[in-house]
Q: What sequence folds into this?
């Protein structure tokens, strides 16, 4: 199709502001999906997305409106999936910025708007949910206009649920979003913005064609990896995959590569033809920096190869996931994985268990620390067990957190941030009823339950977004857990010195309940270096050896008790304590006494 009639756009918004519902109405209105096929959140095809009611993966679909081809990419709203949004935006010329008229501009709305502006996209502001009784369409329009530097008249007012105003959105996309500017006669170039794996057809690359044209049965070169292959099929999403003869400059679609080795094609690579290759690749994507680290171990050590293959395939579909092999004395072979946040970690674990039928054990999440040794070397530590014993200083990652909260909840949120060692930056009033608080917080303090606490203290009305703000020096210590005198590396933690006693005490208490009794006493200790700060003892199972002694000399009873004690001592020397999975999971579920 002529490029002048193509429009590529994303729908971006804060979580639960109606992106996927707006996409449903667009599919319905353009007759892309029949009434029989229609269902709520039709683009959320993953089982996990439908269960949780959130978008996890960006989804592309092509629709036709008044002679124009519109390529829509529906994106996630949660802060953990910002990388998905940034990749989708690089495949577009415009973005529809959706705001809930009842809630107004939220933290993630601001973050997504800035992402779109950084990519030089045309922003189309839209106030959604105007059918709600508590909706303030005019207030939301003026907030949006202030955010994107436009007038409130240009803000579209719609109800994605009822369909009111959606036709005007499609007309505005055609009128206000510019067409692609690629050269159809230049050597073919396409950006791989996502991919998936089909066990029968190999790697499927989701591409935005920038220049030239791609055909089926054509020899292709991936410029960054140097991989060569022959395309099996090209096509577009409508919303299922539909084969086409060609993919032209400016279009969004897919290329089935037939590659069985998932490492041979990466998201961000540039595809070109071998017959007429392009001289230089497209810019691609910035490498994403993981924020949270945790180790994944198969409960059955024989499933290690399956876990490795599953992670390779999942990384194809989730470019923000990173992993490297790891060995634990307690848990055997596994992988230390890097995630963008705690929700991302949870989603990856569930996808591995459901899609690849694995049974996994996940260690306590940690963040990356920058450790300076006495020799002056700087080491980045992802695993608490690898923290050098001799340290000059330890720097921990901080984030710049933006929290949008109703004015009644400001005090409680400030108290929460202060408890989590937050440093107040500034406060703004985007509207008379809502306050934007900006804090610098240690990432380790928001990893566990900060978001849950924030929501519960504000009755669910607070919005939260964060950006990495660099490393700051902290008074951090490594807390080791010893069971029967042996350190359990999988349970080690790095935390602030002020929290060490409370966390160590809670941890040994929980482990005493979770670890089954042995035939000998088992000490459970929490220690900082060589200093034990908390201890509990799991008492031995005891047989009543005096049951048959009725009266008689006391020395006979003593002899039996001494013999039992000697036996317990011998068992303690040779006995091994098996720590059950529940004990490892207990670390995640600890309720810190301070909190």
A:
């Amino acid at each position: 199709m002529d490029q002048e009639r193509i429009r590529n756009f994303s729908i971006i918004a804060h979580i639960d502001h109606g992106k996927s519902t707006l996409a449903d109405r667009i599919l319905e209105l353009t007759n892309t999906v029949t009434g029989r096929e229609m269902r709520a959140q039709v683009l959320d095809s993953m089982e996990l997305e439908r269960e949780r009611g959130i978008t996890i993966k960006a989804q592309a679909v092509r629709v036709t409106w008044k002679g124009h081809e519109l390529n829509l990419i529906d994106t996630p709203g949660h802060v953990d999936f910002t990388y998905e949004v940034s990749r989708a935006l690089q495949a577009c010329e415009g973005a529809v910025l959706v705001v809930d008229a009842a809630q107004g501009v939220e933290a993630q709305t601001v973050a997504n708007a800035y992402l779109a502006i950084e990519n030089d996209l045309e922003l189309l502001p839209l106030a959604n949910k105007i059918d709600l009784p508590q909706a303030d369409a005019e207030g939301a329009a003026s907030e949006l206009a202030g955010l994107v530097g436009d007038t409130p008249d240009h803000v579209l007012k719609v109800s994605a649920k009822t369909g009111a105003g959606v036709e005007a959105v499609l007309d505005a996309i055609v009128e206000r979003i510019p067409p692609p500017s690629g050269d159809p006669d230049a050597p073919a170039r396409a950006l791989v913005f996502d991919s998936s794996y089909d066990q029968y057809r190999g790697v499927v690359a989701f591409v935005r064609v920038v220049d030239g044209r791609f055909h089926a049965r054509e020899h292709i070169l991936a410029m960054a990896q140097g991989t060569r292959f022959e395309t099996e099929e090209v096509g577009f999403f409508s919303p299922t995959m539909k084969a086409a003869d060609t993919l032209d400059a400016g279009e969004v679609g897919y290329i089935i590569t037939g590659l069985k080795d998932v490492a041979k094609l990466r998201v961000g690579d540039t595809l070109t033809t071998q017959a007429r290759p392009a001289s230089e690749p497209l810019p691609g994507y910035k490498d994403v920096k993981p924020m949270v680290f945790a180790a994944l171990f198969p409960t059955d050590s024989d499933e290690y190869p399956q876990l490795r293959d599953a992670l390779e395939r999942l990384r194809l579909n989730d470019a923000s996931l990173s992993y490297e092999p790891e060995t634990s004395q307690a848990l055997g072979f596994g992988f230390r994985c890097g995630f963008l946040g705690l929700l991302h970690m949870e989603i990856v674990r569930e996808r591995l268990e459901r899609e690849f039928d694995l049974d996994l054990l996940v260690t306590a999440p940690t963040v990356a620390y920058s450790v300076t040794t006495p020799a002056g070397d700087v080491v980045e530590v992802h695993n608490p067990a690898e923290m050098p014993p001799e340290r000059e200083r330890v720097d921990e990652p901080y984030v710049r957190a933006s929290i949008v909260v109703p004015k009644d909840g400001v005090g409680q949120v400030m108290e929460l941030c202060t408890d989590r060692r937050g440093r107040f930056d500034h406060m703004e009033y985007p509207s008379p009823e809502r306050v934007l608080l900006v804090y610098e917080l240690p990432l380790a303090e928001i990893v566990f339950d900060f978001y849950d606490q924030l929501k519960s203290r504000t009755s669910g009305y607070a919005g939260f977004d964060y950006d990495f703000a660099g490393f700051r020096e902290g008074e951090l210590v490594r807390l080791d857990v010893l069971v029967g005198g042996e350190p359990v590396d999988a349970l080690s933690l790095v935390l602030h010195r002020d929290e060490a006693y409370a966390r160590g005490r809670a941890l040994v208490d929980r482990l005493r309940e979770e670890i089954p009794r042995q035939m000998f006493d088992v000490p459970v200790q929490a220690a900082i270096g060589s200093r034990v700060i908390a201890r509990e003892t799991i008492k031995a199972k005891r047989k009543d050896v005096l049951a048959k002694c009725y009266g008689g000399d006391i020395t006979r009873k003593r002899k039996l008790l001494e013999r039992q004690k000697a036996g317990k001592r011998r068992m303690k020397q040779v006995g091994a304590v098996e720590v059950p999975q529940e004990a490892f999971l207990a670390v995640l579920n600890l309720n810190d006494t301070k909190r």
